[in-house]
Amino acid sequence: MLEKEGQIRIPSGCAISGFISRDGKRICGDRIVKSISYMHDRSNGLGGGFAGYGIYPEYKEQYAFHIFYDSNDARVETERFLDRHFDVVNLSRIPTRKHPNITNEPLIWRYFLTPLPTKLASSQLDEREFVAQCVININDRIHGSYVFSSGKNMGVFKAVGFPEDVGEFYRLDEYAGYAWTAHGRYPTNTPGWWGGAHPFALLDYTIVHNGEISSYDANRRYIEMYGYKCNLLTDTEVITYIFDFLNRKQKLSFEDIAKIIAAPFWTEIDSGKYSESEKKKLKYFRNVFSSLLVTGPFSIILGFDGGLMALNDRLKLRSMVAAEKDDMVYLASEECAIRAICPDADKVWSPRGGEPIIVTLNDK
Amino acid sequence: MKKVYVNEDWCLACHLCEYYCAAANSGAPNMIKAFAGGKKPIPRIKVEEGSGISFAVQCRHCDEPLCVKGCITGALSVKDGVISCDESRCVGCYTCVMSCPYGCIVISEDSKVIQKCDLCVKNNNGDPACVKGCPNKAIVLEER
Amino acid sequence: MALNYYQPLFEVIRDKERCIKCQACARQCANLVHSYDEELDVMVSDPTECVDCQRCVSICPTRALKITDNPNTFRRNSNWSMQIMTEVYKQADSGGVLLSAMGNPKEYPVYWDKILLNASQVTNPPIDPLREPMETKVFLGKKPRNVKFNKDGTVNTDISPTLELSTPIMFSAMSYGSISKNAHESLARAATELGIYYNTGEGGLHRDFYKYGPNTIVQVASGRFGVFKDYLETGAAVEIKMGQGAKPGIGGHLPGAKILEDISKTRMIPMGADAISPAPHHDIYSIEDLRQLVYSLKEATCYKKPIIVKIAAVHNVAAIASGIARSGADIIAIDGYRGGTGAAPTRIRDNVGIPIELALASVDQRLRDEGIRNEVSVVVAGSVRSSADVVKAIALGADAVYIGTAALLALGCHLCRSCQTGKCNWGIATQRPDLVKRLNPEIGYKRLVNLVHAWDHEIKEMMGGMGINSIEALRGNRLMLRGIGLTEKELEVLGIQHAGQ
What we know:
The structure holds three protein chains of three kinds. Chain A is α+β, with helices and mostly antiparallel strands.
C-alpha cells in the first residue's frame, strides 16, 4: 500500500502564485483561481489549495479553524476538545460545489473560536501560543482529524486535485480578501491525502512553496526541540514552523528571518557591502540559527496577518517573478500567472536569490 | 644564484644523499645498476658526523675559489657561478684536492681525474640529486 | 633465555638483487633490526624487535625491503588464537600488564562503513563546489535560548565565547611528551594556517608554541600537568579531559624515561619522574563537582573562552552528556573506543567503551529530546578516518570532529602501535633527539594542511551531491543517511532508515 503524507517524505515540484492589495481592497477569490490555472502544467492533479486574507470580516476577532475529518467519530471527539478549550461562536460545514474531478472528500468543517478565558489563564500562555498548542494537539493526538487553517480573518482551502478545480469546489468566487495565495502540486508519489495539499498553515501564517529543500531533516530536528511536531514530513510544514518560531516566538522581523533561512554567503558577508553592525548581526544569525538555514531549491510565499512575503533560496534554484501595478503586488512561479490577471503591470522583475519581497497593508 | 644548503637540524645521517649523488653521476640509468656487481661509485657529497651532529658537505661554489685559482691546466672553471671540471683537461695533479678548504673535491674511481659537485648540471637529473633524495629536507636548493 | 615461547611477529624480506648495501635501513631502525656485516659485506637482519613501522621500507632507495607477517604458526585454534597464546606467554614471562598503543584494532563493526550517503536526482539539483559557493565554516559554543533586543529595538548580538572553524575538523588532544615537539609544532602551524584548532593534550604547552595560542585548545586533565595562569590565558579554549576513548576509566601514563628537560619544564614535574595522571579528577567525583571546575576555569579565564568537556564514549554516554550540557560547559567532546593513545593497557583499549557512531547518535538525540542541544556543541573523535566519516558524523548530529590518528598518519605514522616503547622511527611518538629530528615540521605541517584541504574539498563535493551548500544544513540531517546490513536496533540507535526505505 502506498504510504501517505507523514509516513513517508514525498518530493514534489509545484506552482505558486499570490497577490495583495496594499490599500486593503477586497478582491474576489476567482482572480487567484484564474492566475494559478495558467500554470496547469506545473501541477499533476494531486494537490491544490488557496489561502485568503481578510475573508471573514464578520468574524475577524475569532480564530477560524478549518478541519478535515475522516469520520463523524473524529468530529465528535474534536468538537469535545474544542468545547473544552474554546467558546465556539459559530460552526458549519464549509460550503462546497460538487466537481467531477474532486473526489473522496473528507468532512470539511469550519469553526469560529475564542479561547475560554479560564482555560487560557490557567495555561499561562499567551493567546496565540495557546491556540497553536491546541492545533498541534488535535493534529497529533486525534486520529482522523486535521486542522488545516487556524488564523483570524483568514482561511485555507485545499484538496486533492488541480488547483482550478479546487477553487471551484470551494466556491472561492464567493469570498473576497485583500490578499490571496495559491498552490498547485506535483508530488512524485502520493496517494493524495487532502491534508498533504498546500498551503500549510499555523495561526495566520500560511506557506505555499515550490521546491525540495535539502536541509529538511536538519531544520526538522531543530524546530522539533521547540514543541513543534512535523507530522507531515513536508518542506512546507517545517518552513511554516520556522517562520512561526522566528517571528512569533523570537520576535524577529521578516527581513531578519530572510537573513536566517536564506542567509548570505560568507563571501558576501565579508565583501564589505555591509556595515559593521549589520555584519555582526549576520554573523550572529548564522551562528545562533545555523540549523534554520534552508538549502536546496525553494520559492515560497508566506501569508501573514496584514501582508505577504516572497523568498527564494540563496542560489535561486527555483523560478519566482514579481510585479507591481498601482497598489497591487503580484508574485508567481511564472510571469504568465501574473499576466493572466494583470496584463499591464507597471513593473515586472525577478527577485534575486535570498532577497525577500515583503509587502504589508498600508495601514498596518 | 641558487646553491645547495644543508641544515644540520634535519640531517638524519642516513647517508642517502651520497648514494643518490653517486648514482646520478655514474651514468647508470638507475641506482641498482649504478651499484650492481659490487661497484662503488664515489659520491661528490659526504655526510660528516660525530657527537650527535651530522650534516652533508659538498662544494660551496665559492665566490673566490681556491681550487680554480690553483688549477694548473684550466680544467676547473666558473660558469654562471657553478664551478665545474672539464675532465678532458684534468691531468690528475690533485692541487685542487689539497687546496679546497672544505675537502669537497674527490678523486675518481680510476684515480686519473678529480670529480666534484656541479649541481647536477651535467647529468639529466634536473635539480641536484642530493636535494631530491633527502628524506627530511635537510638539503635544499635555495637563493640566499 | 634458552626457550623462545613465542616468535617474532614479522619477517624481513630483503631482495638481494635490489639491495645496494647503502645501510640506510640499518641507520634508521631504532629497534636495531638491520645491520651491516662488514667482514662478509652483507646486510643482515634480526626481526625479533621489528614492529612493522615501515620506516626502512619507506626509506630504502631501491625498494629492496618488505616486512611481512611471520609465516610461522602455532597449531590453528579458533578459540586460542596465536595472538592470545602469545600474550599469555608474554605475561608468564614478565608478570606485567600488557601495554599497547593507538586505537582498538579488533574486528568490531565499523558503523561508518555501514552508512551510505544520499545524492540529489531530478527533483532537486546537485551542486558543484567548483562552480557554486559551498560553505564549511562552523561555530562551536553555546547558543542563546532567545534573541535579545537592545533598547533601540536592534538585535543584541552578544554571545557566549565561540570557536570559529574554517572547516569542521580539529586536531585531537595529543600531549607534548606522548608525541614529540616537532609533531606538536607541525600540528600547531597547520591549525594556524587552516583556521582550525589543535589540542595540547595533558602535557602543558611548550613556551615556543605560545605564539600559536589563538589556534590552541589547552587541556586540563586529572594530573593538572602544566596548568597555570599563562597556559589557560594563552589557549583559545580550555578542555577538561574526563576520559579518553582508548582507555576509559584510567588516567594517562608517561614513563619517566620520556620526561626530559623540556618536558619536565612544560609539565612542571621533576625530570625522570613517571607522569601518572589519576583515573578521576580528584576534585570531581560527581556531576556537580564538574560544574564547579567548569566555572572555576571560566572565572580564571574571565568568561572569555569556551570550556570543552571531553569524555570517553561509554554505555550511558547520553545521560552523561546531558549532565555535562547542564553543567555550563560550552562544548562536549566524545571520544569513541577506536580512539588512539600513546600507551594503554591492552585489555582496556580492546574491551572498554562503545563505538563513536552509536554514542554520537544517542547523545545528539538525547540532547534534542531534552531541548538542550543548543546549550552545547558536540565534537566527536575516536576514529574519523576520512572525509566521508566526517560527513556521516555531521549528518548524525556532530558539530565538528577531532582527528588524531589521521593527523599522525599524515605525519608518517604507519600504525605499528608501539608508541609506548618511545622508539618511534618516524619521530612522532618519541623524545629521543636523533629520532625526533626525523620529523621536520616544515614538511609535517604542509602534509597536515594538504590533508585537511583535501578532506574539506571532498566534504564539499559530497554536500553538493546532496544539494546542500552549507555545512549547517547537513548537521543532524539524518535523512541523508541510510544504513546497510544493520539490525532494526542498530538503525533505531543511529536514528536512520535502512537503504531502500
